[in-house]
Amino acid sequence: MSVSALVAGEVNLVKNPGFEDGDKYPAHWDKLDGLTMFWEKDTQRPDGGKYIRLFTNIPNDDFLKRYDEMKLENPPPPKPSKICQPPGYDSVGGNDGVPYYSEYIEIKPGMKYTLSADCRSDTGGAPKIFIKGYTEQMTEIADEKGKPITVPLRRITYKGDFDFPAPKQWKTTSVTFSPTGTRDDVKWIRVKLWAYWTPGNYFFDNIKVVEAGLDPEAPKRWAKKKKSAQDDKDKEKNDQIREARAALAYLKKGVDQFKEDTGALPKSLTDIVKDPGVPKWSGPYVVDVGEDPWGKPWKYAVEGKEYTLKSLGPDGLDNTGDEVE
Q1: First vs last C-alpha separation in the chain
Q2: CATH 2.60.120.260 location in the chain
Q3: What is the band of 8 on the pLDDT scale with cuts at 50, 70, 90?
Q4: SS3 letters for 149-211?
Q5: pTM
Q6: 3-class state of residue 257 by DSSP
Q7: Which of 121, 39, 35 is nearest to 82 (CA)?
Q8: Residue ranges matching CATH 3.30.700.10 in the chain
Q9: Partner residues linked to 139 by β-bridges
């Protein structure tokens, strides 16, 4: 069905909100599995538009198998499935539920939005519509050769879930949400239609997301959250520095005792754990050398009759000012 009228000046951010456009699948929405997700013509309303039907009364195992098939570039046709008998605890509606996603929608920081949709069902149940918010974060993955690389990936950093009543006749429901209410780096959202319990048919149409005005308190919450994150980061760093200093004191005692016993400094820190074959060695002088709190080896160097022992600090580089001695 065509989307319900917009208030003057409103712009619906959802493309193909009434599911009228598309070829094999609705444009700007996910592929349909043909087992639990269907794109059909509305016979209840006079304009004869289209809607999405999600069916939740097949075995959950059949749904999961089909879910994996849909990841293929060219999924095979769905295999017939049986209808679950009451009460339907083995159904997809009683377990994973059936999701159906929009494409990514770009949003503005500090903006509130109103989500509205038409829903009905043959059970009188209440499906949910989720709003997933995404932030681009640098993430380490393995390339084709297994080598670690860092790439930008979209990660879910906001989730709003809303009950949408679905009586046997179409009902329009609206809710307001603020995807950047607590953090300003949420750049995109996706609409997720989700049908579950009671097992049966759930129908969705006229999905709308429009701006609902700025959230005036959002910048204050961002600042508070960032300060809290920085405080946590500073505390972690201070804890690591204290840990490094305690470990260095322990290692230096081992080095000093090695020198007292043998009359010379160890050539490497390994010598205070394992006998390097020098006279009068009476170790081990420490249980283990280990690494510094940042996962890097200790920096040990002998200069004549003196030595230096330190951690290179958080950045793992020498002479950058954050070394711990």
Answers
A1: 71
A2: 37-216
A3: low
A4: EEEEEEEEEEEEEEECCCCCCCEEEEEEECCCCCCCCCCEEEEEEEECCCCCEEEEEEEEEEE
A5: 0.78
A6: helix
A7: 35
A8: 220-310
A9: 151
